[in-house]
Amino acid sequence: MPEPLLEVKDLRVHFPTDDGLVKAVDGVSFSIQPGETLGIVGESGSGKSVSSLTVMGLVTRKQADITGEVIFQGQDLLQLPVEEMRTIRGAKISMIFQDPMTSLHPYYRVGDQISEAIREHRDISKKEAFDQAVDMLDKVRISQPKQRARQYPHEFSGGMRQRAMIAMALSLNPDLLIADEPTTALDVTVQAQILDLIDKLKAEFNAAVIIITHDLGVVAEHCDNIEVMYAGKIAEYGRTDDIYYGPHHPYTWGLLNSIPHLGTETERLNPIRGLPPSLINVPPGCSFNPRCPYVFDRCVRDVPELIPEDGHHAAACHLSREDKERILHEEVLANR
Amino acid sequence: MGRYLIRRTLFMVLVLWIISILTFLIFMKLPPGDPARRLAGKATNEQILAQIRENLGLNKPLPVQYARFAKGLIPWPGMWLNENVYYSWSNRVAVKDEIRKRLPVTAVLTLGAAFLWLLMGIPIGIISAVKRRSLADRAGMVFALIGVSAPTFWLGLVFLFIFYYKLGWAPAPGFEIRAPLWQEVRDGKFTLAWITLAITSAAFYVRIVRGNMLETLSEDYIRTARAKGLSERRVTYKHALRASLTPVVTILGLDIAGLLGGAVITETVFELPGLGAYAIERLNALDFPPVMGVTIVAAVFIVVANLIVDIIYASLDPRVRFT
Lengths: 336, 323
Known about the structure:
By secondary structure, chain A is of the alpha/beta class. Chain A contains twelve helices and twelve strands. The two termini of chain A are 35 Å apart. Chain B has 14 helices and no strands.
């Protein structure tokens, strides 16, 4: 196994609030290889965005208690001084966000916003940086990039703005791109274009990608590995095929069952019952136990560990392997 | 842009016309009694009264009376506040001359105070927002609370009591206007008035700048700026400040325009012979032509400032269009 590009070890991000300690991320470990695409899937408030913002250094010790390690190219980013972290952020790790409508500064030209990022990390002239920005807009397939670079964000459509964000994120040839719900705010047809674009540019720039989403369907064909998060912890981790065709966690089953299928008889959606727990009062034992249809006494007592079953695929669930396989085949796969 | 300006200008004329009618009705029609009798004084007879009515056009129908004043409001040489109509009924001094003499006083007061309140309000607002919940923020908010709550007349009198009466650092208030005001500025005749006006306004600006700044700092595009690896200084003073200060331009323009028409309370407290003091003095005498003149001048400042502010705003925010 080669050296991972990024290795997150037992990351905990706890926000002290007036109502109590919010355990947004509570013991998350994962790693990503160079060139890999990892999908992080979970509901709102499952900790997927906070963990990636912590990797970026955008959640700081001022706001939260952070423990664990975030090892990127051999360095623990959590130990880096602020100024050194700035040389990595935007250059080696970059990020695109959920809402392209509000992610660009309304008062500055798109090209200037991209070249500002370039000039922050490279010692080149304004003119050169602007030309590079135009090149990047061309690479994300914005037509007439020269004219477009001189326009303001409000003159761009939502899809174009997200392309511009991608252009900005990739303009410094980062080793890791974190895409936080990159398609959630976009039309369905534009969603596919953006994901295809990320795929293509990832190969061209040889970057690893983390795609954060709440929609399992979106990431299926774009990810090598998938991590399912629930209430600040990883519920299940595995190759994309493991998660789609052999998931071993009741939460993942619920997610898969809730995807509507075209052409089936059932008209009602099949949601997971209940709501995600408050991150201040996480239930004892397995945090999914109040919503789990297969709950038994051990689930309310012990926190299940994420133990790899076959060296890679792992699910944090107390059910025995035989039970999981039985339920998977009888109740989950049979319904598709 | 051209069409926009024409439409705005026509609208401004309409607004000013309505204001002139209202002013005319309020001060010529509403006050009980006969203006001619008020002017004539106690020892009078029917002949004198008739003569006064004739001179001031008061024996004509109301629309004709209004037209006589309205003509003087047309901004054209020879017509604008012409001395045959626009003179004080009490002392016969031309309104035009008074305004020309007094406007610089009000302008020096307003612009000096505006400079000071921006100098106080913007930095305190920024620091309060950036160091939210720190000691500096709390101190800034206490300053804002005091400034907003303290009435100008009270704060002004307190300052006069301390710095003029007790300490003797400030000169006695009040002066006669001689052409350039440098002497008065150097003598410190404006200083306490500037500080008083600045503190009460700065408090408001602190709150606005702080609020805008806090709101902007939580915007997605600020997160994007941080994600680019920009320094916190650049994020705050370029990306966030630009967006937070743009709305302040609007408020500043209207505040300055409002005060240019007469900073009534400040001028009264510090006995500054500005437009506001003039308006109050003439109002108390129910001296109609000066009241009409000052009202329209003040209204012109406001409507013109509105237009200027809108144009500046559009040039600062690329999303705003002239429509």
